[in-house]
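Quick note —
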Amino acid sequence: MTRILHTADWQVGKPFGGFEPDRRGELRAERFAVVGRIADLATARGCDAVLVAGDAFDDNMVSDREIQRTLDAMTAFRGPWVMLPGNHDAALGVSLWTRLKQRAGPARIIVADRPEPILLEDQGIALLPAPLTRRHEGADLTAWFDHAETPSGLARIGLAHGSVQNRLPEAAESGNPIADDRAARARLDYLALGDWHGFVEIAPKTVYAGTPEPDRYPANAPGHVGIVEINAPGAAPRIERVRTARFDWRTLALRLDGGVEAVDEALSALAQPGETVLELVLSGSLSLRERVRLEETLALWRAKLFDLRLVDAALIDAPDDEDLDRIDVGGFVRVAIEKLRARAADPADPERAAAALALRLAYVEHRRLGER
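Predicted structure written out below.
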């Protein structure tokens, strides 16, 4: 029996530029930590080889230090690592792979940078790689698999990075095409893929491992690797999805109509808020009193969550008479406030958002002065 660990899309060196410096540093460091967890898992599960289906690195400009830290993280697994150049880390004439080979040392690292069979006879594997030599290819680089000759006693495994045709959303099929029946046409026992960041068996014997540590919000099962067992050439593979992620990236959509209790209830249900990267999408309408409560609630949760991104363009301020009475009970201020209220409630007013913000600021300021 042959047992492999299939992974892809580590994106080592990803900058995470939209985060605060301390969080950015943690997210970048976790790209190395997950490689270490993969090495430990491969050892613990007795894997014959680890296959990395492209985009181990975020680009060809990663530093020597980042390459070395990746190699250091890989040392716990003593078997062969086969690393395929993907679209982010393509095998250019001079690339990071040149530097990696110089630093690999005793590690059993095979850079699959040529479209030719790689025979791992001790592991029972005949590997057919389709390396990318530039970011975007118009041709299907796995086509050569169909006619490649490999020893009959070895499991025939393809390794590629790109978009399986007719199976992914249209936006994901912009380049580096892979035929959706490649595994059958090339008589593969397994086709290990990278590029799509979620774990999915996209076609028979054809699997995207996804990224082992999430780096974006879509809920498409990121944060895993595959443990694949093949009893003998021609046998159906047994595919096990194993979680490797530390951080949980998720989008939570809530509609608020009058109160903010749902926010605290939903966030309290998170298992590990300190390791949750949350995009909170709010819609509905709130009085100014409740809007202030919302901001106070979110301030508490920002300290508990690893990161909180608020999307509230569809959450409308709906000041009521009590709100306005708290700002001013009469006089010219009340007249001005009523005008702002009317403009904020008019969808056709181009200054609607500015009027709503002015109302909210007026409410907060009068509330602050009243607390003195």
